Amino acid sequence: MNADSLHEYERIHKELVEEGFIRRDFPPNPSIKLWNERVMKMPRDELDKLKTVRLKRLVKWAWENVEFYKRFWKNRGFYPEYIKDWRDIVKIPVLRKEDIRTDLQTHPPFGTIFHPDLAKRIRFVGATSGSTGMPTFQGWGKLELDYFQEAQARYLWSFAGVRPGITYANYLNMSGFYSWGPPVVETAMWRCGATTIAGGGETFFSWKQRHLLIFKLWKIDVFATTPWLHRLIGEMAIEEGWETPFKVLLLHGGAAAENTKKRLFKVHPNAEMAINVWGTTDGHMAVELPNSRGELVIWEDMEIFDVIDPKTNEPVSEGERGELIATLLNHFTMPLIRYSLGDYVKNEFITEPDPIFGITHARFVEPIPGRVEWMFRVKGKLLLPIYIEDAINEIPDTTGMFNIMVYAEEMEKLRIKIESKRDRVDEAYDKSAKALLANKIGLDENDVEIEWIRPGEAVWTGYKLQVFVDQRKKR
């Protein structure tokens, strides 16, 4: 690596620590309410100035040091001097996964989107699942890992009450290059002084009894996994005649509908709160403020979000829905600038301090309901799995597990498999369920076709329920 860029990378890292954006005196005194109060309650005008400085620095770095961006931007008529203010971010061309994948395939293993020499100093490699083709890889250097661990610690300490003496279990994916595993979440837990168990959700079904024993013996306080695995474990405990010990449920891998949360509190009687944690393998994140009904706070010193029309790449108006675009402000090893995350969101953010903590960073006005590719139409009505899930949780005697079978771009009927605990599903039950489901999502009951399946028969992908089964490719 040339000495100048290495020096700049290390200088920026040192600056972030010295200015207090990455806390070093950990764990704090347990009586402290917010992990990093100065940053989390930074005045809005200071946040705006900070975002402008960091965006300009990042764009300049990418143009001068990363071959991919200089080529990508020049071909689209963009130059760094166009950025005068952080709001100018919408002038930067949108980067999509296929752009990165093409670069990786042409220049393996990392492509030209990595800083050529920082790539040799990667401390952790993350990767997407590759479900839509070749996986895309992310490289985390010393700075990137340090900042993301800080970002994790902020919500774990402040929202989930993680302190010394607390036991936390991470039942997210521990394999397959998943980036929120031991290199990130567990180290954030150690910053909080907690005891951490890296359980690994992908092994739950093969090591079920072993995992259940861990929950009983270790009296886990804070449990992190998908909403569906939370529900399944709670149902198992009830059937076996014991209570789960979890006090805080961290819901990863997909937003939990309000009715899902209600069910989770029923099957986990010791739970005091359930918090949606949205994030991506790349390191983007937003976390639900406790008791806020889905308001997800963004650490604005870490990234900038904007929302576009996926057909035109143009920004949507305030209050409209579109595709979520994000820029990580402190990623220099592999910059992700105006990168499409593929999530479908409402372009509306709350910037007033929240009433509980006084946090000034912006919040999504509602939960992130799902990915753009998960949207489907029945009789012309646009739907997402979370809307279906909310309704299913009101149908008596279901486990809450389901698979939506998407067979065409425009479907005449909603075809869905739902697990029922009943030994026999009679016509009256079937009709009542169809009517409830149809009414909740704005369809006629004749537009709903339910295949009732036994508990345990729904399709899962690892520790995630496969709520959306795309059959269109097979036709």
Automatic annotation (TrEMBL):
GO terms for biological process: phenylacetate catabolic process. This is Phenylacetyl-CoA ligase. Residues 404-431 form a coiled coil. Keywords: Coiled coil, Ligase. The keyword Ligase applies. Its EC number is 6.2.1.-. Pfam families: AMP-binding_C_2 (PF14535). Residues 380-472 form the AMP-dependent ligase C-terminal domain. GO terms for molecular function: phenylacetate-CoA ligase activity. It is an enzyme of class 6 (ligase).
